[in-house]
Amino acid sequence: MSFDVEVMSDQQLDELLLKPKKIPTWRLVNTQSEREKKRIRQMERHNKQLEVARLYQKKKQRARLLATKRKQEMQRQEHQERMKHKKKPSNEKDDGLEL
């Protein structure tokens, strides 16, 4: 009986191990080690996915921070421009006629 542990679920592997049929010892040992390898690969894949998600979140957070800084800088520049236009001194009164 051949099998592929990548395709089989844990339940199917357990059933294979608990069958009343006699399984040769080498197959039993092989099955246990394959299950362990499968679980290790699953854990490594899961850890890699977590790391990728963490890096993505960090990248998004950095981008939001930069966008916020840019927005604040633009608002500050706009405010300075508005203040420049308001602060222009006007010495002329009544069309330049002084009494």
UniProtKB/TrEMBL annotation:
<protein>
    <submittedName>
        <fullName>Uncharacterized protein</fullName>
    </submittedName>
</protein>
<feature type="region of interest" description="Disordered">
    <location>
        <begin position="61"/>
        <end position="99"/>
    </location>
</feature>
<feature type="compositionally biased region" description="Basic and acidic residues">
    <location>
        <begin position="70"/>
        <end position="81"/>
    </location>
</feature>
<feature type="compositionally biased region" description="Basic and acidic residues">
    <location>
        <begin position="89"/>
        <end position="99"/>
    </location>
</feature>
